[in-house]
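1st attempt posting a full record on here, be nice pls
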Amino acid sequence: MLQLTKAEKLGILRGVTFKKGPGSAHENAQKVLNALWCVAENGEVCRPIFEPSLQRMRRYFEELGQRKCIAAVYDGSSPGIPLTTLVLKEKIVPREKPEPKPKASRGRKPLSREPVACVDTPGSTLIPLPRCYVFIDAPNVYNMGHRNDMPRIVDFFRAQWEELVKIAMEITGIPRERQVCRLYSKVLPSPPGHFAEKCAEMTRQRIQVIPREKKDIDLLLATDMIIEILACVTEGRSIHIVLVSGDGDYTYTLRRVHDIALKKGAKVHISMIAWNTGAASELRSIVNRVYPIESYLNRLDPIGSEQWLKAYRAKKQTHAQNA
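the predicted structure (as tokens):
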């Protein structure tokens, strides 16, 4: 096999063109697998090679993994997307054999048979199961309650952010393996290394952390939402969005995604986890269901929830005495 330069390998992956429409998923997956074998060394493709095409090919990597054609290797200790290596196993993407149609009998009564139990084998279909995208606007969560002389209800460093992922599983019924979770937060002042340690902890829990110095979290979250979701919607795949925020700035983005999904024949189910007093009315009008974050405070930050409740009762008692 000829040795290719890195530029030639990048060109092969970037040159893969995808078809659209019914039945194109298998052909597109085979194209991606062929390209990976062309650029592989010793049956492996390292991140620097597929990195420029990662966003475009991510869904096909997952489909190939389900079909046992490749194996993805993750590095949980690295920040950002932890996918580091693709190990190639098969060269041909297997097709699912259609079930034979029963032959109609003439003049005979069909024999009664026991129903055959359906076994859901992992990777039994090339089209992936419904996906769930969890977008967490962390400032919208931990800034609430830090007003009107009240303590902060949710503290960024104390909060158990992985509970939001578990709550999303309970809401949607979609397993963790089919979820993509991203958390957006400002870089908060803290002792040296404390913020980085918290981000690394969430990365090990498969939560992608996007820390920002600027006040552009709303813009970044909306942009990622468009990029990630439209790739699925344009193929007619149904997905579930869990937005942990009540910010009305996301209304236009979600409305546009929903309209495009209808045109493509896909379904987008939107759930919102937000503060009862902080959820914008226009955002409430376009989501399928709103889950009050107050119902989950004992899981997200039990210490902060208890402290805030004590302060609220004391403040209410003071007002009653002054009245």
